[in-house]
Amino acid sequence: MTLRQLKYMIKVIECGSITEAARQLFISQPSLSAAIKEMEAEFGIVLFHRTTKGISMTADGREFLSYARQIIDQTELLEQRYLNKKLSKQLCSVSTQHYAFAVSAFVNLISTLAADEYEFTLRETRTYEIIEDVAFFRSEVGIVYFSHFNEKVLNKLLAENHLLFTPLFDAEPHVFVSAVHPLAGKEKISLSELDDFPCLSFEQGSYNSFYFSEEILSTMPHKKSIYVSDRATLFNLLIGLNGYTISSGILNSDLNGDNIIAVKLDTDETMRIGWICNEKMPLSTMALQYIQQLKELIARYGYSILS
Hints:
Strands 4-3-5-13-6 form a 5-stranded mixed beta sheet, with helices on both faces. Strands 8-12-7-11 form a 4-stranded mixed beta sheet. The protein has helices at 3-15, 18-25, 29-43, 59-83, 100-112, 127-135, 151-160, 231-241, 253-256, 285-300; strands spanning 48-51, 54-57, 90-96, 118-124, 141-146, 163-171, 174-178, 188-189, 199-202, 225-228, 245-247, 260-265, 271-278. It is elongated and about 65 Å long. The chain has 10 helices and 13 strands. The protein is an alpha/beta fold. Helices cover 40% and strands 22% of the residues.
């Protein structure tokens, strides 16, 4: 085993493809495949499942990767200390449901950095894909919410993938509507009052189960439903069609403007929003700083931090 082989493996995971990893490493695909196979033979394990659709990590591969990352991180610290070698780019990858506060915390993190180089990734994506990203080390942190309805299913899925959920705060569900919506001036909005307006939700692809929905009370029937894949489209439809969606209630006017407002939903349900990580990999300094930015931002909105 060599450090180069470990770096090769990490690059394959980051790219999700041996072909793309080889391109970024400026080596041939057969050379990269051979290096991976040599490690597998040396340790007597299979690191990747190889299919016509691409690669995925085995259980042994996920555990091996957690050790590989630690070795590479410690090697870089040694080189910096004794060889005066500059640290490589600071890295941080986050996957999140479509929350403005998650983006705001990301902005705040980058704004505080004095680093000359960094490489960060922020994925606003589907619930199941967030879990996969963290399980397969594509992201260090995932932002999701739990409710009484979905917590049993999500906890089972997290346990199967060796993931840990840490709660950040409990949010009372709010209705997001345009500032000129007919219900915008109310102190509270009931579900019955929303019945004639389009309900906007984030589609969940192949895993379009109620348990993976980003919107609480997802099993409630709606006369008008529209599914979208990104937050900008959802906000445009909120304004253009007098639609609504249900979320945490935290909006950032710096990012979203003043055209969208949050009105409390008349319900006893709550959303427990938190972050997930892989129990097999310690969080990097950047990931920990991101979580701290989340806590500080959420506290500024008046919410009590749970952890």
